[in-house]
Design brief:
Structural class: alpha+beta
Mean pLDDT: 80
Strand content: 15-25%
InterPro entries: RCHY1_zinc-ribbon, Znf_CHY, Znf_CHY_sf, Znf_CTCHY, Znf_CTCHY_sf, Znf_RING, Znf_RING/FYVE/PHD
Shape: flat
Keywords: Metal-binding, Zinc, Zinc-finger
Helix content: 25-40%
GO molecular function: ubiquitin protein ligase activity; zinc ion binding
Strand order of the largest sheet: 2-1-3-4
Protein name: RING-type E3 ubiquitin transferase
Length: 342
């Protein structure tokens, strides 16, 4: 074979100086200069705000690998974050797509429970759903466009509601959305702006927009609430389940403080309290003479004897009273009686 070049013919195999120079590693100053230059180049890339994060990582990687070109792996597809689509509120074969965040939820109540920091979902703004059978995303309807699955036994296109008929849902045009219990069991009261049970419609306390308020206990809007409201004898409304909790420790309306239990039911309790007061009179130094106001009959009474168990209204016998003014205390009463004796 021919030599690659004439230089190969001129080399002396016994010349040790050439071999030593070929095997000698680069000097330490050269290595330090290269490391400093690489570090400065990386710092310049980090300060460059005109390039994307992906391009910045690629340039730094090329520098660290001595500019060997490496093909980056393909980026993973960005899938919208989804909350649990298991709905415990309605029986249905579809999930909704929340228009505010483009996430999939079981229903609007699931959205309100899981989407932290989001306002309540507007049921009327829902435009897309996802079939639970074939996972096809599609416009709102009651039949899947891909697998023909029926999404709900009951479907209201106005409220975007899908559910079973076991709770007898119906749409009230005057309320503006769907309710449960059967249309035959309710009548809409235009004064209260609410569907009222036919059993109490003729006798219910009618106030304008009475139910367009928050429950005084849980503060949830009663007009659109999924919980049933309850009328109190004073005319105010409260959630039925909130009333049951309240009745365990307080017998008064949380708004007007009137007794929510009938006078006949409270009569025995008032009599028992009056006996306790008679058997346990206040000592002279703790006696008070006060003016009171009765929350039940709204009557003011003057110069009543105060007791820590309560002050009874002389008109209706209720102990649901508040002290408006203290006229005299125990020391003053003692001084007055001593002066009269002298």
């Amino acid at each position: 074979e021919m030599a690659d070049s004439d230089d190969d013919l001129d080399e002396d195999p016994n010349d040790s100086s050439n071999n030593m120079m070929a095997d000698e590693p680069p000097s330490e100053p050269q290595e330090e200069d290269a490391a400093i230059a690489k570090r400065r180049a990386i710092q310049a890339i980090m300060r460059d705000t005109t390039i994307s994060e992906a391009e910045r990582r690629m340039r730094i990687q090329n520098l660290m690998s001595n500019n060997r070109l490496e093909v980056p792996p393909p980026a993973a597809p960005i899938i919208p974050e989804q909350e649990s689509s298991t709905c415990v509120h309605y029986e249905r074969n579809c999930n909704i797509v929340a228009p505010c965040c483009d996430r999939v939820f079981g229903c609007r109540v699931c959205h309100d429970e899981h989407a932290t920091g989001h306002p309540p979902l507007d049921r009327f703004a829902i435009r897309e759903i996802v079939c639970k059978k074939c996972q096809t995303r599609q416009p709102t309807s009651n039949v899947c466009v891909h697998c023909n699955t029926v999404f709900g036994e009951y479907h209201c296109a106005t409220c975007n509601l899908w559910m079973s008929r076991s709770k007898k849902p119906f749409h009230c045009g005057e309320c503006g959305f769907c309710r449960v219990g059967g249309v035959e069991s309710f009548r809409h009261c235009k004064e209260c702006c609410m569907c009222i049970s036919v059993n109490v419609f003729s006798t219910h306390n009618c106030f304008k927009d009475k139910y367009k308020n928050n429950c005084p206990v849980c503060r949830e809007d009663m007009f659109s609430s999924r919980q049933s409201p309850q009328d109190l004898p004073c005319g105010h409304a409260i959630h039925a389940h909130c009333f049951r909790k309240l009745a365990g420790f307080d017998y008064r309306c949380p708004i007007c403080k009137k007794t929510v239990v009938s006078q006949q039911s409270m009569a025995a309790a008032w009599e028992a309290r009056a006996r306790d007061i008679a058997e346990q009179p206040m000592p002279p130094d703790l006696q008070r003479v006060v003016d009171i106001m009765c929350n039940d009959c709204e009557t003011k009474s003057h110069r009543r004897q105060w007791h820590f168990l309560g002050v009874q209204c002389p008109r209706c016998s209720s102990f649901n009273t508040v002290v408006e003014q203290v006229l005299s205390s125990g020391n003053e009463n003692t001084e007055t009686s001593q002066g009269a004796s002298a």
